């Protein structure tokens, strides 16, 4: 979800206008993903590093996110979407917003149409450190720690590994996003700014992903001397 500020600057508007325009994109992408049969969708809304932005912008974002959550909660629930918020435990998040997050998770907790994870106050490194601390507190011996047991101590451990990461606006960085889960993800970098990103762009990214051969460090059968039936 990158490019809100540049979208606003291109129109000689304040950065907040770009954030406000992004609301339409969020709903459009959620609907497109659900219609395309995507079972797990994650949106990176606010990183732990975003607290360094001007306080007026951060305050606006907190108010805007609360408005969007309350406005679209009925739609998300009606669509059978289970909503989760990754990384929200921070005293700087307004209590009213944290309560709205919790209410939406409770409301949609039994839904199974699609799981929507909103990364808010999220940092991939922080998640890994928290998992390591959890293992230590649980008294797990070092020799007993493997990838499976480590992943079980991450937030929402039932979340599958990420298949595809779409970063809009042409930026080509990970930016501390779900570092453990994106280990073997495919990446697509559309140049479209997030407020202009729509369902056709999303579907084009899915098409690009489906054209790729995912080898996970191995080789394709025909490259190994085998032929596909």
UniProtKB/TrEMBL annotation:
Q: What is its EC number?
A: 2.5.1.-
Question: Pfam families, from UniProt?
Answer: Prenyltransf
Entry's family note:
Belongs to the UPP synthase family.
Q: Which InterPro entries match?
A: UPP_synth-like, UPP_synth-like_CS, UPP_synth-like_sf
PROSITE patterns noted in UniProt? UPP_SYNTHASE (PS01066)
What the entry lists under NCBIfam families is as follows: uppS
> Which source organism?
Streptomyces iranensis
Lineage of origin: Bacteria, Bacillati, Actinomycetota, Actinomycetes, Kitasatosporales
Alphabetically list the UniProt keywords: Magnesium, Metal-binding, Transferase
- Active site at which residues? 2, 50
Give the top-level enzyme category.
transferase
Cofactor(s) required for function per UniProt: Mg(2+)
Subunit-structure text: Homodimer.
HAMAP family found in the cross-reference section:
ISPT
Designated name of the protein: Isoprenyl transferase
């Amino acid at each position: 979800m990158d490019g809100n500020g540049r979208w606003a600057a291109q129109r000689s508007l304040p950065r907040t206008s770009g954030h406000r325009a992004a609301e339409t994109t969020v709903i459009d992408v959620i609907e497109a993903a659900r219609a395309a049969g995507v079972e797990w969708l994650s949106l990176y809304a606010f990183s732990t590093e975003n607290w360094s932005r001007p306080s007026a912008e951060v305050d606006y974002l907190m108010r805007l996110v609360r408005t969007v959550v309350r406005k679209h909660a009925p739609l998300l629930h009606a669509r059978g979407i289970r909503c989760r918020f990754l990384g929200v435990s921070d005293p700087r998040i307004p209590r009213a917003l944290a309560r709205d997050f919790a209410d939406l998770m409770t409301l949609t907790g039994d839904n199974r149409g699609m799981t929507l994870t909103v990364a808010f106050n999220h940092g991939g490194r922080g998640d890994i450190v928290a998992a390591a601390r959890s293992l230590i507190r649980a008294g797990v011996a070092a020799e007993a720690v493997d990838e499976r047991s480590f992943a079980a101590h991450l937030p929402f451990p039932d979340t599958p590994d990420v298949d595809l990461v779409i970063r809009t606006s042409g930026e080509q960085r990970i930016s501390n996003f779900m570092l453990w889960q994106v280990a073997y993800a495919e990446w697509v970098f559309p140049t479209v700014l997030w407020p202009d990103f729509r369902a056709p762009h999303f579907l084009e990214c899915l098409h690009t992903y489906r054209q790729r051969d995912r080898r996970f460090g191995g080789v394709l059968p025909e490259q190994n001397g085998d032929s596909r039936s």
